[in-house]
Amino acid sequence: MHSSPARNESTDSSLLLEFGFSNTWARRFDELSSSFHEHLEPARVVFESREHYRVVTATGEREARLAGRLRRGEDLPAVGDWVAAEVPADGICRLQAVVPRQTRLSRKVAGDQTREQVVAANIDTVFLVMGLDGDYNLRRLERFAVMAEESGADPVVVLTKSDLHADAAGARIDAQTSAPALPIYTVSSLLDEGLEPLRAFLAAGRTVAMIGSSGAGKSTLLNRLNGAEVMRTGAVREGDDRGRHTTTHRQLVRLSGGGLLVDNPGVREIQLWAEETALAAAFDDIESFASGCRFNDCRHLDEPGCRVLEAVRSGELEAGRLDNWREMEKELQHLERRRDVAAMRRQDKQTGRLYKRIQAEKRNRFR
């Protein structure tokens, strides 16, 4: 192995520190870059759209492209990633590798492919944003909660547009039944109400990602938290209160107070990419009830002595929440089977390539 040259003093500039580059990230970067011939520098991905990237380096924000070895891999950089980059004096940076992540907010890609899409990386907190208008949907909130639990970051529910709801306090109580273990805040970005508690999550160098439907008010919230407009906002459609996808790319924004916030395009659907442990964490109330079932393998369908079903009958547990848990449990079990099949196919391809290489070497030896 060839060690890369020592990082110069500019690598430790205040700009990288402002974007969260700590001693821990420095060690991870050094471990990764030591196996490369090239002189590499740390950078953080702040913009991504269809393999078009911008990164922050020690000397400023730069355009970036993927090196061939990274483009051929399956784990592409995401907004929030720290990367090892070739940084020329001017021109486009070449991203050579992704520094191992601390957290990752992911979902399954749309369609039939069994592949992970990383929405944001190395985040400390996830704001699960939902508008108190036509966007308000408790079943979707539960799905967001599973996605956030899998990320490794701390989930926080943010109910926007409280000025549009006749009983915002009641809506918050309802949301607490769908996310019993999570902190929930109601805010009005229009009236600048309820925002101060959210700023506590955006201390200097801390990274927050927002997920929610289009029109939920994510970009408006970002602008208000920053104190100035950094993202364009648009009106929602009449009739369903859904947005027009004003945000079309993922972007990491450094706020005036020093915090870092990832704005994402509105999510039309969430296909989960998670383990069943994340489902258990998001539905810990059902897990708690299940511990009182008569049978250890109770499926909570029609078994005698089922404590979960008793909780539904007594009103302790909402029937819709249990139905949603069942649906997501089936989805994750199906995902696990598909991931196993995909892994076997990749292994078969690797074995096939190895066999062809061995056969080619044998033919060359006997020529």
What does this protein look like?
- With 367 residues, the chain is of the alpha/beta class.
- Among the domains are: 9-98, Nucleic acid-binding proteins (OB fold (Dihydrolipoamide Acetyltransferase, E2P)), CATH 2.40.50.140; 104-263, Rossmann fold.
- The protein contains eleven helices and 13 strands.
- The protein has helices at residues 14-18, 23-33, 68-71, 138-151, 168-178, 196-199, 218-226, 276-282, 284-290, 307-314, 319-365; strands at residues 41-49, 52-57, 60-66, 82-86, 93-98, 104-108, 116-121, 125-131, 154-160, 184-186, 207-211, 250-254, 260-263.
- The protein has a five-stranded mixed β-barrel.
- A hairpin with a 2-residue loop joins strand 1 and strand 2 (52-57).
- Helix 4 (138-151) crosses helix 8 and helix 8 (276-282) packs across helix 9.
- It is flat, with a radius of gyration of 23 Å.
- Residues 1-11 and 234-245 have low confidence and may be disordered.
